[in-house]
Amino acid sequence: MVSQASLCLCSLMKMNHQDQIFGFMIRPEFYPHPVSSIEQRETHISHVFLTGDYVYKIKKPVNLDFLDFTTLEKRYYYCHQEVILNKRLSHNVYFDVVPINLKDGKYHLNGPGIPVEYAVKMRQLPEDRSMVRLLKRNKINRVLIEELAVILSEFYVQGPSVEHIHSSGAWETILANCEENFQQTTMFAGEILDERIFQIVRSATLSFLHRKKELFDNRIKSKKIRDCHGDLRTGHIYFTDEGIQIIDCIEFNERFRFQDVTSDLAFLAMDLDYEGFPQIANYLLDDYAKHTEDPDIFVLIDFYKCYRAFVRCKVNCIRLQEGDLGKKERTKLLRETNKYLDFAYRYAVLFTRPTLWAVCGMPGSGKSTISRELSRIFRIKAFQSDVIRKELFGIRPGDPSGMPFEAGIYSKSASSLTYGRLLLLAQEEIEQGRSVILDATYGKQHDRVEAIRMAKDNEANIVFVECVLKENVIKERLLKREAGYPVSDARYHHYEDFKKRFEPLNELGDEMHIRVDTEKPLEECMEQILAKDYYIASLNTYPNNFRPKRRKDV
Predict the structure, then answer these.
(1) Is there a single domain that holds both residue 322 and residue 375?
(2) pLDDT in tens, 58-73
(3) What pLDDT, on the 0 to 100 scale, is given for residue 485?
(4) Predicted pLDDT of residue 544
């Protein structure tokens, strides 16, 4: 432990040692161990030296509002934080904080003299085992992704769950973070960034936040705000012989690390999209969902992917502003910055576009259960055909109609009126920018075509969730209704007629059709629906590895 006196002495010297130190660190004899080669790397906040077996990272004396490394004391503290925090997701990688001392005009690594700088000492991991390198060699398979998903799910659950961490996930905090990002990048709009796209991303982000406050509040109640990694991306994940190593978490600002687990996952998912591997991102989210009970990740993922892409924009803009870049490096960074902005824009378009969910299938197949759960997860309205039908004819939902099959309120004309009314109610929601659920049999192709036409006319997505069940199970459920069912009049003796008249959904194709076996537990059904929706949406909207029209419920 360095003495307070030494720290104060160094502060009083008011001398910038880093340039001189870097001159020493490019020499193999500076290190107290064999050096096979020396490679320098630089970010906007650190200078890194790779020596073959070990890595030394020195923090720049910068103040960027969201971090402050301007004093030796602060750099010393955050070096220790980096070592401690990164040991959570890595093994035998982060060793210690080592002083760089000055004596008689010479600098020594952990040698004689007065400490004038500090470096984090790490084991150098093989670059060819990084996730980004393995992806480009097609060496990442579903088994490895599931292993990663399990590690992350366990990490988030084991993290501390205390009040001051939860408060970091408060709606007000997230709003402040987003507004801060936009404020800090406003100066670049019209110069580095396209001003029109910048304003669209800003408007969409703030609109989503104001419309979804309840959702963000519930994330705190469900304890989904944790001490996360904060900078989870493909370049920070290694698949080694010793297992998966995840490094370089955020140590300099708790506010960037204390966050919704979805935000942490979104950074990695966004990075996978950016690198051209959206299918791997789908696998990661699907496998993570299977190991957790957190369907909200599919509601929030595009919002946080947008947030993360824009953070990368901001970081690059700050780096570009420093002005010490060569022409080639600046051109490359400009291209990356605009690509991140494009991704942020596309995600923003996706999470603001409403969806019409048509939950359909035979009577007794579990449509209403699925509809209620979708409504709860997405916090959107669900309209049930049985209720609407009776309301149209002045019958209370719980009262039986006593009408025979396809007669009275179940005649063809009454059914047409009912499906028309459902579409009008759905259209009212969609015109307000809200997604909506229609719970109806949709056993006629004509009714499905009309729903698709309405969705397209209103520039909304549409998904048919077909509830399927074994015939004997459906009949068993219908028999139970003989004792009384609060809404539906469909009974056991109607089954064969319904079956004959039900037109299969063959015309829809996989791009808007999800089939779910409702005999499975509800949690498993919902995971399947939400993951499949995310998957087919990515197929529909990511040509050439990125597609701009992803479905998401608002």
Answers:
(1) no
(2) 999 999 878 999 999 9
(3) 58
(4) 41
Query: What does DSSP assign to residue 482?
Result: G
Tokens for 412, please give them: 């063809």
* Residue 106, token pair as written in the block: 């010479």
552 located within any domain: no
Determine how many CB atoms are found less than 10 A away from the CB of residue 520: 13
- The pLDDT tens digits for 117-146 are 999 999 999 999 999 999 999 999 999 999
The first and second tokens of residue 501, run together, are: 């008249």
CA–CA gap between residue 269 and residue 201 (Å, rounded): 19
The continuous run of DSSP H or E covering 49 comes out as: strand 46-50
For 230, the 3-state DSSP assignment is: coil
Cβ proximity of 382 and 422 under 8 Å: no
Same domain for 421 and 467, yes or no, is: yes
- Torsion over CA: 524, 526, 531, 533 (sign): positive
**Encoded amino acid at 504, one letter:** P
**41 to 48, 67, 142, 231, 379: CA distances (angstroms):** 5, 20, 32, 18, 47
Residue 301: in which H helix or E strand, if any? Answer: helix 297-321
Residue 255 lies in a domain: yes
The range of the structural domain enclosing residue 91 comes to 4-124
| 343, 403: one domain | no
Please say if the pLDDT value at position 490 is more than 60. Answer: no
Q: Other C-beta atoms within 10 Å of 538: how many? A: 18
Does 250 map to a domain? yes
Number of neighbours of residue 401 by Cβ within 10 angstroms: 15
Q: What is the pLDDT of residues 20-49, one digit of tens each?
A: 999 999 999 999 999 989 999 988 899 999
Q: Is residue 551 part of a domain?
A: no
Q: Which residues pair with 331 in a beta bridge?
A: none
State the Cα–Cα distance between residues 448 and 456, nearest whole angstrom.
12
Is pLDDT of 74 > 60? yes
